[in-house]
Design brief:
By secondary structure, this protein is an all-alpha fold. It is 74% helix and 0% strand. The chain has 14 helices and no strands.
């Protein structure tokens, strides 16, 4: 066996070295703010505020997390957010896959017209007040069903799925399935879905992140605090901590302490709200790398 390696030219080695340095710096710029937030959230408020926390925590404390998780509403918000995220993601992924597949079929009657109408809604909408009135007339105000349905389907996601179907599901495959006696429903669930894992993973990530970070819809259409998602509760904690920190009725020492404590509470809130969704990403990374390239190559 020939174990000799191909000798690389000096300019190739320099190019690789420059690329590696650039990528390392890029990763450092992206990752360090996340690392700093985690370290500051478990550091003493004094060190977190004076800028001495850089690479490791100083004066280790979990006071910020104790105050965040000490509120029972946080756990209720977690449960509500999980319900909205799981339900909305499942509904959204199934709808965009079905719609994207249907619009990718050349034999769909009026498919181009439907696609144009979808694209039209991306640029023109009725506005917030008409939407609120429609939701009110339908009797969906203050319901969990509204939080699951609202925002589950995006025209952009449908276009992405349609582009994937056009590029990766050939018409010959459908013709062969029809000859073997396979109907459209069976063809979609038994052939198209297994071949669409990459785009499905991308849709899961896009939709789930949107639901997890959503708070505006709950503030607009829900008055029952028991149904609020996590982000609304965390916002209330931030507002409350800021108001307490700015309370001029407190003694100067107490006021300074509250200002310092409000900072680590904000760091703890950031970690609490982002950690769960970050834990999901590694499980779908292998599909995401392929799916995110959908539509990048034309031809």
């Amino acid at each position: 066996m020939n174990t000799k390696k191909i000798k690389r030219s000096w300019d190739d080695r320099i190019f690789d070295w420059i690329c590696n340095v650039f990528l390392f710096l890029f990763i450092l710029v992206v990752a360090y703010p996340l690392w700093f937030v985690v370290m500051a959230s478990v550091s003493d408020p004094t060190y977190a505020n004076n800028g001495t926390v850089l690479l490791y925590p100083r004066g280790f404390t979990l006071e910020g997390y104790k105050m965040v998780f000490g509120d029972k509403l946080i756990w209720r918000g977690y449960l509500n957010t999980i319900i909205y995220t799981v339900g909305g993601t499942a509904l959204g992924v199934m709808v965009v896959l079905l719609a994207g597949y249907a619009l990718s079929r050349k034999d769909l009657v009026g498919g181009s017209t439907v696609m144009k109408l979808f694209v039209f809604t991306m640029y023109f909408g009725g506005g917030t007040i008409p939407l609120y009135l429609v939701i009110q007339k339908l009797g969906l105000l203050d319901t969990r069903f509204l939080m699951i349905v609202l925002g589950s389907v995006s025209v952009y996601n449908i276009i992405v799925v349609r582009s994937f179907m056009v590029s990766n599901i050939p018409d010959e495959l459908h013709d062969a399935a029809i000859i073997d006696g396979c109907g459209n429903g069976r063809f979609f669930f038994q052939i198209v879905l297994p071949l669409s894992k990459a785009v499905a993973a991308v849709m899961v990530l896009y939709i789930a992140v949107g639901y997890w970070n959503s708070y505006f819809n709950a503030m607009m259409y829900m008055t029952d605090s028991a149904k609020h998602p996590l982000q609304v509760y965390l916002r209330e904690i931030l507002v409350l901590s800021s108001s307490l920190a700015g309370n001029m009725d407190l003694e100067p020492e107490e006021l300074l302490k509250m200002q310092e404590l409000s900072m680590i509470i904000k760091y703890a809130v950031i970690v609490v709200s982002t950690a769960p969704i970050l834990c999901v990403y590694p499980f779908i990374q292998k599909y995401f790398v392929k799916g995110v390239m959908i539509g990048s190559v034309k031809g």
